[in-house]
Amino acid sequence: MKPAERAEKLEELYVRIQADPEYRNARMGEVFVPGRGALGDRPIVFIGEAPGRDEEKERKPFVGPAGKNLSSLLDEIGLSQDNVHITNLLKYRPFAANGENRSPTPGERRYCLPYLIAELKLLAPRLAVCLGLSSAKALLDDTSLKMAEANGRLFERNGLKVFVTYHPSPFNYRIPGKREALRKAFQRMAELQSQMV
């Protein structure tokens, strides 16, 4: 599929999501945040859990502090946000009663998953990289998944090669052990994807 055709089909999928009255609930923001990035053959696709406040403002995933950390990790392995594709499991920001960001509920993850799988089938990635437990639990259909065991590992599910690592959130990035685990996972991911070209 050519990039222009892929972009058109992704846009059709995004229109379907926005038209689905069950997708967004009262505990989510009103701003739809689509995926962005490379649309060539077999890109690496990074999947977060949901947009945050910064992403909602810019209508782009991973533009806030976690996005800066992601850029640093990509720089270390010779990639940039321009030559990968970045998306989220949920396309609207889930928020708590106090207005702060919150993690998606299991029900929200389950409902959004078929749309994410459809998005990934259109992107046909050589590697789908789950950034954090929310997207990993959903995509691997494993609610008991533990990040300490899954970080840096490759799985196969739904016809996809799925790689799991910690979310590059400022919270994780400030903890030396988790930051080092992220770096090692990204190095491992770079080795794996270079063998898949």
Shape: globular
Number of separate structural domains:
1
Number of helices: 8
Main pleated-sheet profile: 6 strands, mixed
Structural class: alpha/beta
| Rg over alpha carbons | 16 Å
The sequence of SSEs as H and E is HEEHHEHEHHEEHH
The oligomeric status of these chains comes to single chain
CATH architecture: 3-Layer(aba) Sandwich
> Helix content range of the residues, please?
40-55%
Strand runs, count: 6
Straight-line N-to-C gap:
17 Å
**Average pLDDT reading:** 93
| Strand content range | 5-15%
Poorly predicted parts: none
| CATH uppermost class | Alpha Beta
Description:
Helix 1 (3-19) packs antiparallel against helix 4 (106-123) and helix 4 crosses helix 5. This protein has a single domain (3-195), classed as Uracil-DNA Glycosylase, subunit E (3-Layer(aba) Sandwich), CATH 3.40.470. 40% of the residues are buried. The protein contains 8 helices and 6 strands. The chain has helices at 3-19, 53-58, 65-76, 106-123, 133-140, 147-150, 170-173, 176-195, and strands spanning 36-37, 44-48, 85-88, 127-131, 153-157, 160-165. The chain has a 6-stranded mixed beta sheet, sandwiched between helices. It starts with a helix and ends with a helix. Helices cover 45% and strands 14% of the residues. It is of the alpha/beta class.
Detail the topology: elements first, then pairings.
Layout: H1 3-19, E1 36-37, E2 44-48, H2 53-58, H3 65-76, E3 85-88, H4 106-123, E4 127-131, H5 133-140, H6 147-150, E5 153-157, E6 160-165, H7 170-173, H8 176-195
Parallel strand pairs: 2-3, 2-4, 4-6
Antiparallel strand pairs: 1-3, 5-6
Helix pairs in contact: 1-4, 4-5
